[in-house]
Amino acid sequence: MAAIVGLGGVCLDRLAILPRMPGWDEVEHISSSATQLGGMVATAMVAAARLGESAEMIGGVGNDDAGRYALETLKREGVITQNMQVIDDEATAFSFVLVHQETGQRTILHQRGVQAGEELPPATFDLAGVRFLHLDGYWFRSALRAAQQAKAHGVTVTLDPSTRLLHADAEELFYCVDYFMPGIAFVEQFMAEREPFRAAKTLLKYGGKAVILTNGAEGVYVCAPDDEFHIPAFRVPVVDTTGAGDVFHGAFVAGLQKGYALRQAVTFASAVAALKCTKLGGQAGIPTFQETLEFLERQGFAVRHFQSA
């Protein structure tokens, strides 16, 4: 298996840029459109692979054109797919993504399809040689089982919690996580606290190494048992924010695999996510490692600190 394994969501994204969001019974002309691979963990694994790390995707797709497209795209990006499941009589998950032309903000209409299930075969996972397991909460029972095995084998577990984890049983998974990485939207639905640092501190109760809270244009708020800091978002010409958080998470895990310390990995991931936002779709704008280094250098960072750790 790869050094980085992701278990979770994969879907087909159909994206459209609109000058404004139409109301019911109105028509609005699309400025541009695209079809791309999406999914929280799938996008994270593509990001890790594009940044030069070995990555594997575990998930499920339907036996349909969208599923075949997803598998072909993952393979083309260098993501291992040998444990992907093709499930008959179910549709591959897909999303309609409507992007505001001026701000890059988006609205997502999602069809779960095959990912409505809780269990994904096989019942056990071979984690030999794996260093990081990245999850989003899709295939919850399988994710929990994999996380428990990971903890037993000393594998670092990272979690980008989807709204599928807004239920009481999810806390069993949270206690297995080393790096808890929620977006602000999840936090606002999961708990009463809205202030990022206080929310992140509260989530440390699950015993992880750090809570990394992403908050869009406001940047990233990080709390560890002995440290807390804020990394502002890099300013770039934004075309589309779709998948920015997913890309951040994949880049963060790639940074840890490269040997980066916590602050260094967050800064690196923030740069990768910013560059992603300069193109339409969750994956088209993901930069290579070299492109990220060049961007960081233009931002005034000493690139030698990111070339080796």
Automatic annotation (TrEMBL):
This is PfkB domain protein. It comes from Candidatus Moduliflexus flocculans. Keywords: Kinase, Transferase. It holds the Pfam family PfkB. Belongs to the carbohydrate kinase PfkB family. GO terms for molecular function: kinase activity. GO terms for biological process: phosphate-containing compound metabolic process. One of its GO terms (cellular component) is cytosol. Residues 26-288 form the Carbohydrate kinase PfkB domain. InterPro entries: Carboh/pur_kinase_PfkB_CS, PfkB_dom, Ribo/fructo_kinase, Ribokinase-like.
